[in-house]
């Protein structure tokens, strides 16, 4: 076995130290390369995250702008739906008003036709007797004048009725269009329900026209009624709703002054309403008795 001298040991130790130094240097270089690679990798990830963050920020800005536009569009749609609801409510009110006017026109036409038939019947009955015809010449002239007035008034009423009917049809078409538009808006946005309440039908007002119906007995002759004994006679036309023809009929029934009208009983009202066809409700509606009492009191205070 060879012997190792201190020189050999020193050489081996020196080589070991040199090898350790060389290994340390190589390991240091490799560590630096790995560290550089890791730093580059982290830098790339940071850059990628920063790019993604910028992209998300831009996308968020775009989404916020779209949300703002949608909210503005939604607000406009709600305002438009509210306006359309008001239009629909006005259309319903206009339609109800036109229907009431059409109903009034139809009632007037029916009354005019009834008056015309009654006048024709009276004319036919009076033509059977020459003596009655002579006695009724003046009244026939008056009736013919009233009939002509009614005949002149019927065509304008018919034209007005047709015009109102056309307006109703046009409003119904506009109403259907408005409903379709509201349905489209409600499909795009939240439902905006509208409650449309119809307007109630008010009591019909008097038309202010006079009626005429002279008293006849069973044989078709006029009934002659004398003036009151005390001669007191008032102008009954001062009562709203009483015209010349109605005043004449009341006089023929023995009613000449406000006192008599103010003291009319239910029986008297029925008797007057029987003579004046269809006037029972009108006497109460126009308050003939109350007006007569006021006029009587005014005459008494003078």
Verbal overview:
Among the domains are: 79-185; 236-301. It has eight helices and no strands. The chain is rod-shaped, with a radius of gyration of 52 Å. It has helices at residues 6-126, 130-135, 137-188, 244-252, 258-262, 266-275, 280-285, 288-301. The chain is 74% helix and 0% strand. The N and C termini lie far apart (172 Å). With 302 residues, the chain is an all-alpha fold.
What's the structural blueprint in terms of helices and strands?
Blueprint: H1 6-126, H2 130-135, H3 137-188, H4 244-252, H5 258-262, H6 266-275, H7 280-285, H8 288-301
Percent strand:
under 5%
Shape: rod-shaped
Average per-residue pLDDT, rounded, comes to 77
The chain-level structural class is mainly alpha
What helical percentage do the residues reach?
A: over 70%
- The whole-angstrom Rg is 52 Å
Distance between the termini: 172 Å
How does the major sheet shape up?
none
> How many H/I helices?
8
**Succession of helices and strands:** HHHHHHHH
Low-confidence stretches: 190-227
Number of strands: 0
């Amino acid at each position: 076995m060879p012997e190792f001298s201190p020189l050999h040991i020193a050489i081996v130790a020196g080589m070991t130290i040199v090898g350790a130094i060389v290994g340390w240097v190589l390991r240091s270089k490799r560590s630096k390369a790995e560290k550089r690679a890791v730093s580059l990798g982290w830098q790339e990830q940071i850059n990628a995250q920063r790019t993604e963050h910028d992209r998300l920020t831009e996308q968020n800005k775009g989404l916020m702008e779209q949300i703002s536009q949608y909210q503005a569009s939604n607000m406009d749609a709600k305002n438009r739906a509210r306006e359309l609801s008001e239009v629909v409510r006005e259309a319903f009110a206009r339609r109800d008003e036109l229907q009431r006017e059409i109903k009034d026109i139809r009632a007037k036409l029916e009354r005019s036709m009834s008056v015309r038939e009654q006048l024709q019947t009276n004319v036919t009955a009076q033509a059977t007797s020459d003596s009655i015809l002579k006695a009724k010449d003046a009244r026939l002239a008056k009736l013919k004048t009233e009939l002509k007035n009614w005949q002149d008034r019927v065509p304008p009423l018919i034209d007005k009725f047709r015009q109102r009917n056309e307006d109703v049809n046009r409003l119904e078409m506009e109403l259907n269009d408005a409903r379709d538009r509201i349905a489209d808006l409600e499909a795009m946005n939240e439902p905006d329900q509208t409650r449309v309440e119809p307007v109630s039908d008010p009591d019909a007002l008097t038309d202010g026209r006079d009626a005429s119906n002279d008293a006849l007995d069973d044989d078709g002759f006029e009934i002659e009624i004398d003036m009151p004994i005390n001669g007191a006679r008032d102008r009954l036309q001062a009562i709203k709703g009483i015209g010349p023809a109605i005043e004449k009929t009341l006089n023929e029934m023995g009613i000449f002054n406000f006192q008599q009208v103010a003291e009319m009983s239910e029986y008297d009202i029925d008797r007057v309403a029987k003579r004046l066809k269809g006037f029972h409700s009108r006497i109460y509606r126009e308050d003939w008795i109350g007006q007569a009492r006021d006029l009587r009191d005014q005459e008494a205070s003078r």
